[in-house]
Amino acid sequence: MTVFLEIFDPFGSTLPNWHQVAVEMFFILRGQGKALCDGKEICFEAGDSLCIPATGKHQIINTTAERLYLLRFIVPNERFVELIHSGTPTPLVHQVLGQLPFALNSY
After folding, report:
1. Which of 54, 74, 95, 107 allows an S-S link to 2, with CB 3.0 to 4.6 Å?
2. Cβ pair 29, 70 in contact under 8 A
3. In the chain, what is the greatest distance between 2 CA atoms, to the nearest angstrom?
4. Count of domains forming the chain
5. Cβ density class 12-30: b for 16+ within 10 Å, e for less
6. What is the CATH number for 93?
7. Distance from C-alpha of 31 to C-alpha of 24, rounded to nearest angstrom
8. Nearby residues of 78 by Cβ (< 8 Å), 6 or more positions away
């Protein structure tokens, strides 16, 4: 299982994508947005969770002028960790961690 924190800039989004075998789950920590999956649209907010089935063509969209914070879970990895590690690292500064729910701030 791959788990990571993802932060979307205001009105940011993923590109539409799909996975051959991986199931993807999102837990919304802060913010609002919508998910598109196989032609369906689901609105979400903090506290919601979403599950995207394998082969579901999907996109996550931040629909507000505020940042969107979510946890992404992918099972199995399907080379996602390698994709993330090939990107540009961005340190999580105190300002970003301060935006998360209290339980995560203590780490």
Report:
1. 74
2. yes
3. 39
4. 1
5. ebeeeeebeebbbbbbbbb
6. 2.60.120.10
7. 19
8. 19, 20, 21, 22
pTM score: 0.81
* Domain span holding position 27: 2-105
The CB density around residue 70, as the number of other CB atoms within 10 Å, is 24
Q: Tell me: the pLDDT tens digits for 19-65?
A: 899 999 999 999 999 999 999 999 999 999 999 999 999 999 999 99
Strands (E) in 1-107, as ranges, are 2-8, 23-30, 32-37, 40-45, 49-52, 58-62, 68-75
Backbone phi and psi for residue 105, each to the nearest 5 degrees, phi listed first: -65, -25
The HSE-up count of residue 107 (CA atoms within 13 Å, CB side) is 7
For residue 6, give the nearest of 78, 74, 76 by alpha carbon. Answer: 74
